[in-house]
Amino acid sequence: MGMKDFVIISLGGSIIVPEEIDVAFLKRFRSLILNHVRKGRRFIIIVGGGKTCRKYQAAASQATKVTREDLDWIGIHVTRLNAHLLRTLFRDFAHPAVIRHYDEKIQTKKKVIIAAGWKPGHSTDYDAVMWARNFKARTILNLSNIDYVCDKDPKYHRDAKRFERMSWKDFRKLVGNRWDPGLNAPFDPIASRKAQGLGLNVVIMNGRNLANLGNFLNGKKFKGTIIKG
């Protein structure tokens, strides 16, 4: 399989399951991706755990004393559940197995590859970075539940400053250097450090705004934060 021209997407689990599974979104997302597949585009979509992950982790923590590794494994299995849902949507166009490890050897002519979490210590954002490295992609598209990266949460701070472009140095000051299971950050700190080291660009945008996603895929002006350099 050729290794160029793949679009690498890190898809937040909370986009798929904000509270309940968003079937209407899944239908529209499937239609958009397949529209580009039919034009010859290829996608690697790495699926996160999102709110579902954090609900399971909270339940375990309330019921008993749990280790960070246990919490990570809960999150990993939630990413795999979400990924199996997504792979089912693209069944006729996707590699038949959900990929767990970014170094797995894949022999497929399918235009869509669905991947999930691998091991404790980082999020699916990190897996997306490693997929980009392996497939020689320069940009990762991170579909989150925010329009832009801001210096503080705009839900609670009306004076929050948004960034359309950021350096990795400034972004990493914002998110820190420590990974916690269930961390809710625009792009996880461990993944950010690796992406900076590899010289990758990450575009963070609201994954629920599919018209905006379409603009990005079509090379048009879009809303979002570009992290680079």
Task: Describe this structure as you would to a colleague.
This protein is of the alpha/beta class. It has one domain: 3-Layer(aba) Sandwich (Carbamate kinase), CATH 3.40.1160.10. It is 40% helix and 17% strand. It contains eight helices and nine strands. The strands form two sheets. Strands 3-2-1-4-8-9-7 form a seven-stranded mixed beta sheet, sandwiched between helices. It has a two-stranded antiparallel sheet with strand order 5-6. It starts with 5 loop residues before the first strand and ends with a strand. The mean pLDDT is 91.
Give a quick summary of the entry:
It contains eight helices and nine strands. With 229 residues, it is of the alpha/beta class.
Topology overview:
Elements: E1 6-11, H1 13-16, H2 23-37, E2 42-47, H3 50-63, H4 68-89, E3 112-115, H5 124-134, E4 139-144, E5 149-150, E6 162-163, E7 165-167, H6 168-175, H7 189-198, E8 201-206, H8 210-217, E9 225-228
Parallel strand pairs: 1-2, 1-4, 2-3, 4-8, 7-9
Antiparallel strand pairs: 5-6, 8-9
Widest sheet, order of strands: 3-2-1-4-8-9-7
Question: Percent helix among the residues?
Answer: 40-55%
The DSSP helix count reads: 8
Overall mean pLDDT stands at 91
Main sheet record: 7 strands, mixed
Number of strands: 9
Structural class computed from helices and strand pairing: alpha/beta
CATH superfamily: Acetylglutamate kinase-like
* Residues in β-strands, percent: 15-25%
Write the CATH architecture name: 3-Layer(aba) Sandwich
Low-confidence stretches: none
Terminal Cα span: 30 Å
CATH class: Alpha Beta
Q: Report the principal-axis shape.
A: globular
Count of discrete structural domains = 1
By CATH, the topology is Carbamate kinase
Following the backbone from N to C, one meets helices and strands in this order, namely EHHEHHEHEEEEHHEHE
Radius of gyration: 17 Å
* Quaternary class: single chain
